[in-house]
Amino acid sequence: MNARNKYSQLIKAEAKRLGFLSCGISKAEFLEEEAPRLERWLNKNMHGEMRYMENHFDKRLDPTQLVEGSKSVVSLLLNYYPEKHQIEDSFKLSKYAYGTDYHFVIKDKLKSLLHFIQDEIGEVNGRAFVDSAPVLDKAWAAKSGLGWIGKHSNLLTQQVGSFYFIAELIIDLELEYDGPTTDHCGTCTACIDACPTQAIVEPYVVDGSKCISYFTIELKDNIPTEFQGKFDDWMFGCDVCQDVCPWNRFSKAHKEPLFNPHPELLTMSKKDWEEITEETFRKVFKKSAVKRTKFSGLNRNIKFLKNT
To answer: Which residues bind [4Fe-4S] cluster 1 (predicted)?
Structure first.
């Protein structure tokens, strides 16, 4: 076994020990296939008011411009599928936001993995990324064989579906590289047919500016009235395209205690949400990703749903 192979096996074993679902490795290089796709998407204004998507175009496509001397992109998946769900008569919250903000949870695991690499292999430099920098997470995960990009533009894996977070370590160490897997969407159009706002404009292309997640999290202005009655009770994020995907029947509950929800969250009814106070918001979402939309943002979303 050569050194690159040995180091790759070592990293994958440690990733598993840290609780990651899987780990795949790609060569850090320019993403040629993604470049025209991203350019088209931006030109059609499918990012809406997410202007940050226009920044760092070159860095988004080339990790060597993001991390000096980088040789490898280590992609990791972390399961967040919950054991228990919200009650039926409730305004809905995307499952990824049930527990502690994933940025904190994953960053800690990535730091541990990087320290392990440095302790075991020697002087290795790199950076950890959890969807807060210009890195095309899904493209890298697909390139390293962790899944394929589905028609809803999320990463899909045969054994586990798509309810997981994607993160990366970009490091200056040459490793053994994995290859991509094949697409298993076939003729299925479940996600396209089920999208309440018809945001999946064609297979594999999502108009972000029509997505419920965009309206309830990213959009700071009022939600356009033309979408009234089309939100299917989602007040933060949306899981419809994942919920209807046949591959997600294989989803198993995560084992990360930090992703467990505040006990009150699962039992709150529509009436409870309509009457939520800032104090309850702070208590239930103390360390949650929902804080991003703030109390005022969540309130706006609930009022929008109430008036439909």
So the answer is: 185, 188, 191, 245
Instruction: Tell me the pLDDT tens digit for each residue of 140-155.
Output: 999 999 999 999 999 9
Q: What is the pLDDT of residues 38-63, one digit of tens each?
A: 999 999 999 998 888 988 889 999 99
What are the start-end ranges of the E strands in the chain? 22-27, 72-79, 92-93, 126-129, 148-149, 155-156, 164-171, 200-202, 205-206, 234-236
Q: Quote the tokens at residue 269.
A: 């009814």
Q: Which CATH number is associated with domain 3-171? A: 3.40.109
Q: Where are the domains of the chain?
A: 3-171, 190-247+261-306
Does 243 carry a binding-site annotation?
A: no
Dihedral, 117, 73, 20, 157 alpha carbons, nearest 10? -160
Amino acid, single-letter form, for residue 201: V
pTM: 0.95
Question: 131 an active-site residue?
Answer: yes
Task: For residue 131, say whether it is annotated as part of any ligand binding site.
Answer: yes
Pairing of strands 205-206, 200-202: antiparallel
* Radius of gyration over every alpha carbon of the chain, rounded to an integer in angstroms: 20
Residue 144 marked as a ligand binder = no
Helices (H) and strands (E) in the chain, counts: 13, 10
**Phi, psi dihedrals of residue 25, rounded to the nearest 5°:** -125, 135
Which one from 62, 101, 108, 131 is the annotated catalytic residue? 131
